[in-house]
Amino acid sequence: MTGDQEQRGHPRTWVRPALGALSGVLAGFAALSSAELAAALVRPEAGPVVAVGGAAIDRTPAAVKDWAIRNFGTHDKLVLQLGILLVLALFALAVGLLAVRHRRPGAAAVLVLGGVGAVSAVSRPDSTGPVDALPSLLGSVAGALLLYALVGRLPARNDSSAVPDGVVADREGAQRCGPEEWDRRGFVVAATVAAAASAGVGALGRALGGSSARDAVGSRNGLVLPGPASSAPPVPRGARVRVDGVSPFLTPNGDFYRVDTALVVPKVDARAWRLRVHGGGVREPVTLTFDDLLRRELVERDITLTCVSNEVGGPYVGNARWIGVRLADLLAECGVRPPSRGGRADQLVARSVDGMTIGTPVEDVMDGRDALLAVGMNGEPLPFAHGFPVRMVVPGLYGYVSACKWIKDIELTTFDAYDPYWVRRGWAREAPVKTQSRIDTPKPFARPRAGTVMVAGVAWAQHRGIDRVEIRVDDGPWQDATLAAEDSRDTWRQWSFPWRAGKGGHTLTVRATDRTGAVQTVRRTRTEPDGASGHHSVVVTVE
Ligand SMILES: Nc1nc2c(c(=O)[nH]1)N[C@H]1C(S)=C(S)[C@@H](COP(=O)(O)O)O[C@H]1N2
Ligand SMILES: [Mo]
Hints:
Bound molecules: the ligand Nc1nc2c(c(=O)[nH]1)N[C@H]1C(S)=C(S)[C@@H](COP(=O)(O)O)O[C@H]1N2, molybdenum atom
Shape: globular
Number of domains: 3
Structural class: alpha+beta
């Protein structure tokens, strides 16, 4: 039968589904491009990819997120974006295949997908309202119409053995063309025009969407931070051990770990940025501009930042020289008092432009430590990835309870009244950094030569300070490492240990003691709910 049909010029059986799948992909492309163009006009974050991706991140179980951070690290967003595109492509194929059999339901399926995008966009924490639904809705209408039009030009279904002699089963197809002369030209023209138009619309969307990002980049490029009224003393010469393989004392911005839920890095125009401070105990809500902040007294401080998702021995810790405004002074001016002095609010909730919420104890912010609204990092304005134009940094607390990037709002409230983002996902309300230490060199499974091997690394217990670091070889006694000079108790401290290494396999273990006298516990815990504990060990083979 098939051979028969082919002889009469009837398209092969696979042509229709294949072109249907192609139509689906083209419709998907058209839908996304038009949605992104609409988003560029409405609000870039309201685009379906960012909205659905963000919603997916928020709904991902914390354990999976933790796993993604661990395994993809700073590339977890790229992996997610590729994943979204793959899923979308599969959806588009499936919808195309559906549409060749059932033209209207196929087109309707595109609208349903658009609906998912619209609901995601409107329910994002940074949504500005129902207009955020527009990009997905408009995009899906464009996609559905295109799919409907393309499928209408396909060869009629030819796989129905119940219909002899080329009489076709598909009514809609049959009305347009018989099995023998399908509208091949019409399809090719429509498909080509659609692809070109989508590419054009997408490029226009990106160009327009890029303009707000360009403003942000402009506001950062043109920025010269005023010198701090209170400079950080130079890092003591003795703070750096001279051993190859140890993390640099100040982490360069480009190497500084990045952990956040932002699918695309928010690009905020410093000139349009505002910070609102309000809530319990605030005399009158205030709104600050970026210039208001820069006009205040700036302080410069070295502070080591740590992520609660850092495994024992892990990389999510970095040390930077920050410039910023002392948050406690600002709060005091607004009338805020810490709970220990009768203040009503015990939790400070920071909100970012991308809807993150981070809760910090007011007591910690106001107890005299250098809690900052930071504007500078290692001698330059904050990089976009690290929170430009303004972020919080609080010595001694994990990032998820202190270090809100792209901050735009500070609310004074209570721990009883409000659970921020990560707390709702099972992480601890309060999370001081645990005393930790890491062997940077030798690396795991290194094969050093017998003799003196320099073991070295970092230890941190921000705001308490590191008092002692000890090394144990195999099951031997703990032996004191040599501590490098302390920069401040808010920074990590380097250490080294000249090890007389004998041949064979050995396990090196490190532990630190902070200035409260607390010894880093051997008890291993997971990162959830308030940070990993345990000792870092490295296994080497001495040759
Ligand atoms: N807006 C926003 N701020 C955020 C986060 C985030 O996801 N969004 N992540 C927090 C976490 S968990 C950490 S550890 C630090 C990391 O800061 P960094 O990326 O500059 O190293 O930022 C904090 N601030
Ligand atoms: Mo974190």
